[in-house]
């Protein structure tokens, strides 16, 4: 007897997978519907808006997201307590995205676990991903992009417009494209 690994299991493991597989298409459609409902919900009832996302994302406590919010699947996203995201957050969560406690995102932040093959023939049919971890007490400025496989340590500040391509150690201020540590943060 052979064990066949599904495209869904390949995706979660960070292996090349076919995103066109019906189970994955259905899961993305459900996430898109939840995001659509969240984005169009009455802005004077934030508790109703967040309840829509609570059925999709994993909350470890209080979270507040401004619209617009977009994700691929939602179930791969874990938000720590006291999370805040300004407008236009996009999380491409083909692999796990773990965000710590007391984290703030500026507007237009993009978190992408998804990547594609360099070879154009392979790129026609497969994609893959790598998990992203963002520690506690992190602030990502506006227009920050975090790329597949990156870990950002606790208490970091990532400057606006940065493209984070490599791990950032705890207690760092990092900026640029590619993002580089420019100084350490002294903690009290």
Automatic annotation (TrEMBL):
Q: Which protein family is it in?
A: Belongs to the transferase hexapeptide repeat family.
The alphabetical list of record keywords is: Acyltransferase, Repeat, Transferase
Q: Which residues form the Maltose/galactoside acetyltransferase domain?
A: 8-62
Which InterPro entries does the entry link to?
Hexapep, LacA-like, Mac_dom, Trimer_LpxA-like_sf
User: Which GO molecular function, any one, fits this protein according to its record?
Assistant: acyltransferase activity
- Give the enzyme class: transferase
Q: Which SUPFAM superfamilies match?
A: Trimeric LpxA-like enzymes (SSF51161)
Q: What is this protein called?
A: Acetyltransferase
- What Pfam families does the record point to? Hexapep (PF00132), Mac (PF12464)
Identify the taxonomic lineage of the organism of origin.
Bacteria, Pseudomonadati, Pseudomonadota, Gammaproteobacteria, Alteromonadales
Q: SMART domains per the record?
A: Mac (SM01266)
Record-linked PANTHER family:
ACETYLTRANSFERASE YJL218W-RELATED, GALACTOSIDE O-ACETYLTRANSFERASE
Residues making up the signal peptide according to the UniProt record: none
Q: What is its EC number?
A: 2.3.1.-
């Amino acid at each position: 007897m052979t064990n066949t690994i599904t495209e869904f299991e390949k995706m979660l493991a960070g292996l090349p997978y076919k995103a066109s597989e019906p189970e994955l298409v259905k899961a993305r459609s459900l996430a898109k519907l939840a995001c659509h409902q969240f984005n169009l919900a009455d802005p004077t009832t934030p508790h109703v808006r967040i309840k829509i996302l609570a059925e999709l994302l994993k909350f470890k406590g209080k979270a507040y997201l401004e619209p617009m919010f977009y994700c691929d699947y939602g179930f791969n996203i874990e938000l720590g307590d006291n999370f805040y995201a300004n407008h236009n957050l996009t999380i491409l969560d083909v692999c796990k995205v773990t965000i710590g406690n007391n984290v703030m995102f500026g507007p237009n932040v993009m978190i992408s676990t998804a990547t594609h093959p360099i070879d154009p023939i392979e790129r026609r049919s497969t994609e893959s991903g790598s998990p992203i971890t963002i520690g506690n007490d992190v602030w990502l400025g506006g227009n920050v992009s975090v790329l597949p496989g990156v870990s950002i340590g606790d208490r970091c500040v990532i400057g606006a417009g940065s493209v984070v391509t490599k791990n950032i150690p705890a207690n760092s201020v990092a900026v640029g494209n590619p993002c580089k540590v420019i100084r350490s943060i002294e903690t009290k």
